[in-house]
Amino acid sequence: MGLTFEKNKIYEMPVFFGPSPDPKNPRPDGTILNKPADVEAATVMFETDASMLEALLPDGFSLAEPVLSVAQCEFKHIGNFAGNSYTLINISVPARFDGERDHLRGDLVLAMYENHAEPIIGGRELLGYSKIYADIPRLAEHDGIVRGQASDWGFKFLDLRLDLNRQPEDGEYMSRITGESEAKFNYKYIQACPEKGQKPWEAAVDASYPVANPTIGWEAPEGYPYTLAEPRRQPCAGTVEFHAPTGEDMPMSWWIPAYLAKLPIKRYVGASHAFYTDPADYTRIYRLR
């Protein structure tokens, strides 16, 4: 007997070796247990040109605030990845979604850079996250200064800096933006393979729709064996700088940081340095309607 697909099972390419392991699929007893991760996050927010952000929004979304948020996050000791760690940089804007069914406020992820393939593949295929690869070293901290960066093919396209010795420029505004968010928004898009005789750009689209990952209302399931640490967050000042690459610098993704580098920094809203435990539970993600 050749390959057969089991019903109600998640598969990922390559599919030939069977369904994905837990926690992507339930354990033999039918339960799912997502194991948490320790997270360190360095975030900078700045006010920019509203029209340049609005030009990026898909149908159904509206810009809530003309602010770009850049967060470098180290996910450490991730239970779902057998205790391993990776680093991401989340670039997002405060947005509102109003559809036929759903109406909520959240952060639309424009791009999420990560430095390991496994979370990128799963995040793109199963969760609809706008993930892409970058080389991201660990955060460096010295004398109250936290530094982060990202590069690709040897070209550094991002510098991030926190000054823990200074207060945020507009801490109240920053707290309001953060507090009003109900979800992380993403837009899942997968191009179809062309039919015989078609050009790749003439092919249909396999998937094109927005998704939401709620960031509020999570409750530990009955018998949850883990203790989530109390979050620690220090408001501070910070800066971020995008460096525009050329097609030679980053051949397959240069236009992303090139666009971000064009965004004017009208003023910095503030920054934060946070430590928290993420339950790493992605079972609540849903397609927006």
Question: How would you characterize the overall build of this protein?
Answer:
This protein is mainly beta and 289 residues long. It has a single domain (39-185, 218-279), classed as Acetoacetate decarboxylase-like (Beta Barrel). Helices cover 11% and strands 42% of the residues. It contains four helices and 14 strands. The protein has helices at residues 50-54, 117-127, 171-179, 255-262; strands at residues 37-47, 61-63, 67-78, 84-98, 103-114, 131-133, 140-142, 145-152, 155-163, 183-191, 205-214, 232-242, 267-278, 286-287. Strands 1, 2, 3, 4, 5, 6, 7, 8, 9, 10, 11, 12, 13 and 14 form a 14-stranded mixed beta sheet that branches. Strand 7 (140-142) and strand 8 (145-152) form a beta hairpin. The radius of gyration is 20 Å and the shape is globular. The N and C termini lie far apart (40 Å). The model has no long low-confidence stretch (mean pLDDT 97).
